[in-house]
Amino acid sequence: MNVATFPLWLALFLQLGLGLAVFRANPRSYVNQSFLLVSVILSAWLVSLHLAFGATQGGPAAFWIRNASASGLLMATGFNVLRLAIVCREGGWRVIWRQSAVLALSSLVVGAICYIPLFLRYAEIRNGEIPRPVYGPLLPLYIGFCAIVGLAVMGLYVRDLRRTSGMQKVELQFVVAGCAILAGLLAFTPVFVNRDIAVQFAPFRVVIFSLVIAYGVSTRKIMEVGFFFRRITSYAVLTAYLLAIYTAVWWLVSTAFHSYFPHESRTIAHVAAALVLAFAMAPARGVSQSLANRLFVRTRGIDFQSTMREAAGILKSVTTLQDLLGRFATTIGEAVGTERVLVLLPERDAYVQHYPPPQPETGASELRLRREEPMISYLETHHEILVLDELYRVRATPEMDQAAEEMEKLKTAVAIGIFSRQHLAGVMLLGPRISGRIYGAVEQNALQVLCGQLAVAIDNAQLFTEVQNARIYNETLLENLTTGVIAAGADECVTVFNNEAGQITGLEPRDIIDGSIDRLPAGLRQILSDTLRTGDRQENGELVVPLDDHNAIVRASSSIFHGEHGEMLGALVVLTDITALKRLELQIRRSDRLASLGTLSAGMAHEIKNPLVSIKTFAQLLPERYQDSDFRDTFSNLIGHEIDRIDSLVNQLLRFARPAKPVLKPMHVHDVLEKSLQLVGHRLYQKEIKLTRSWRADVDTIRADADQLEQVFLNFFLNAMDAMNHGGELSVGTEIRAASEWVAAISGSNGESHEVLLVTIRDDGEGIRTEDIPHVFDPFFTTKDYGTGLGLSVVHGIIQEHGGQIEVESELSKGTSFHILLPLVRFAQEVVAA
Q1: What is the pLDDT of residues 294-313, one digit of tens each?
Q2: Residue-wise pLDDT tens digits, 117-149
Q3: Which residues of 281-291 are buried (b: 16+ CB within 10 A; e: fewer)?
Q4: Taking residues 30-35, what's their average pLDDT?
Q5: pTM given for the model
Q6: Which one of 410, 472, 542, 614 is least enclosed by Cβ atoms within 10 Å?
Q7: Using an 8 Å Cβ cutoff, are 443 and 302 in contact?
């Protein structure tokens, strides 16, 4: 192989490599197999030409000329087979050979004629020139047959171009385009290029021709012929334009500087031309594209810029998800020219049709595709657009075959994934184009960009819908709450004032919202102002709101709410009208006191009976010992003492039964505990319950209502005795603790306190279940088979009114401890218990 033959061998290897590459791309495709056959025929023709022109003797030259003539004749048969493989894609080789048999057999017969002397007599070689063939009388027959076959094959291609559509039509167009390019190269290359150069590089024209056809029959992402030629024309115009500029600048600069710098003028000219070329590149590209667009007006597909503008307009104006899908689908349908656009969005384990909305009345059911369906699985895995026509052009896999079968079943030409943050947020299905054209690479790229915009729009629409739903939900919730809600911004303007707040305060919400908090009642205004100023929460504060005909007692809790970055946005107050609850508490306390009287009656009867027995005994002995002055003095003193004792017991009973508001006075807790234990002493004795006292507190002074505390302690003692049934131990103790040790600060009407008097009442009874402990102070909650469940609720209210709190510890089968915490007050003078 010498330098002169190198281009031919290179073209030969390129041709064979191209055929094998197309074949390996999809060995099962009849089109790819047919292209390999054409490549082999073209390669045989190139080899024959090379060996014929390179022969140095007449005999070998004649032989290879005959082979070249026969190979050239078989080209028409090869292209006819390629046409049939495109048109009869599903028919198989049997159908292809049957329809091409006549042409193939006649070509073989005429090809055989090429090997007899009547076709070619000999080849002569003169003075080292290329061989000169001397033909016989059958040459006109050969030429006529070639012309007829060529025209016939061309006619069949033209006919099929009119009959077919979609990918078949595009593939046929690329074969015809390749032939047109080859004809143009054969016709115009000798005109513009030196004859020797044209002959030397002639084989590459066949390679260019094959490249065009290979692109049309094997490339997965294919452009339509019009776009293909428009792009080639654009690059050709761009190249010619830049070469012209470079040449002109180089000539001008070289001429101008030649007289000054004769040796450096060309270098300077090249540098200047390169600089001008760099600045001219961008406008030149625009000019070339504009010119190509004008030359191929009818090849324009989707108008990407106008479609994007329309899509951007939709993004700006869209309100709901359904409106978005409808307008976007209409835009895309009009842009690509299809009547069928479906949009599926994820719901649980499937993608469900959201556009067009299902209409059961017309018999059109909604489309549901599970995530494991082949088409959905492919889109999620590969993040690629699925085009049905392209699935037949690549090496088949089970996954692609299943996806193609599903797309055929759904009458879908294109399936596009709508991806949001690398997650498949939806699927768009497009039907075939009305014009019969394919979804080429240009359309596919545009659709992917549009679906990217759609993904963002869907997120925005869903977010907008969620915000709207949340707003409606929150407004409905606020307006139907049984508690009042008032919110104010950092500028102390009211932003929320629901209906319940209006009913509680007697104000109209429309008069308060967007106004200053100064319009609120004094107590509420103070709570909001303090919370906004300090940022501290206020919980379960009680205040009185004056109304026209009465005062409302309100429990209010406030808190601060912050923004995303921690800045304070405003304050919120939640109001609960507890006026009726306060009345009910008074009634419950009265009822609880009366109910407790029945339990205490036995102990009271025992306590009253003892002094009565003493009085009765002395009264019976009085007639007999009346003269005994010592007896009379003793009897007289005893009667007074016992009557005082009975009076004290009756007064205690009356104070316990009589409902009254708490009157806080200085008192000793130990004294109240002893009195309460005295009242239940008889029952403790009856149930054989051991009583243990532990007064560890060296100071037991507090401000409290003795009667109400007595009710509290009696309630705990009675509950403890009920829990222990018969036997057991009741422990009552006191000690002083620091207020900071407890969960909530001990405060109230007694003011702030730094010390706490802790009263612990412990039993070793049945205990309380863990899940019941949070509810022991709830009204009407009880674990007994009897009782109302109001006792501990009343007790809890009394302790709260005294500024204290109650803690509970309990374990099943081991007992229960109630810790009563009251603010300790150290008085400078002696305190007398009530």
Answers
A1: 544 444 455 656 777 777 77
A2: 888 888 888 776 777 888 889 889 988 998 998
A3: eeebbeebbeb
A4: 88
A5: 0.53
A6: 472
A7: yes
Beta strands in 338-463 (DSSP E): 341-347, 350-355, 368-370, 386-387, 414-420, 423-430
The total number of residues written for the chain in this structure: 834
Kindly report whether the peptide bond that precedes residue 356 is cis, defined as omega within 30 degrees of 0.
yes
Q: Measure the CA–CA gap between 84 and 97, rounded to whole angstroms.
A: 9
Single-letter amino acid, residue 209: F
CA distance linking residue 47 with residue 68, whole number of Å: 8
- Tokens coding 613: 């027995």
Q: Which residue has the tokens 């060529």?
A: 150
Burial status of residue 810 (CB atoms within 10 A of its CB: 0-12, 13-18, 19 or more): buried
Q: Work out the angle at residue 528's Cα, subtended by the Cα atoms of residues 523 and 530, and round it to the nearest 5 degrees.
A: 95
pLDDT in tens, 662-672: 788 899 999 99
Distances from the Cα of 702 to the Cαs of 662, 670, 674, 711, 745, in angstroms?
14, 11, 16, 16, 17
| Residue 571 parent element (H or E) | strand 568-577
- Strand duo 805-811 + 815-823: pairing: antiparallel
The distance of Cα 406 from the centroid of its chain, to the nearest Å, equals 27
Half-sphere exposure (CA, 13 Å, Cβ side) for 340? 12
CA dist., res. 725 & res. 764, Å (int): 10
How distant, in Å, are the alpha carbons of 473, 508, 557, 754 from that of 498? 14, 9, 16, 39
Instruction: Say if CB 556 and CB 538 are below 8 A apart.
Output: yes
Q: Is residue 373 a contact partner of residue 350, using CB atoms and an 8 Å limit? A: no
The residues pairing with 692 across neighbouring beta strands, listed in sequence order, are: 731
Phi, psi dihedrals of residue 480, rounded to the nearest 5°? -110, 5
656 by Cβ neighbours in 10 Å (0-12 / 13-18 / 19+) ranks as buried
Q: Which residue has the tokens 């003795």?
A: 706
Q: Which strand (E) or helix (H) includes residue 595?
A: helix 579-621
Instruction: Give the separation between CA 333 and CA 583, rounded to whole angstroms.
Output: 70
Closest residue by Cα to residue 579 from 551, 556, 540, 605:
551
Residue 168 near residue 86, CB atoms below 8 Å: yes
N- to C-terminal Cα separation, the chain: 130
What sign for the dihedral angle of Cα 243, 246, 247, 248? positive
Residues 6+ apart with CB under 8 A from 560: 531, 532, 535, 537, 568, 570, 571, 572
**Cα–Cα dist 468/457, whole Å:** 16
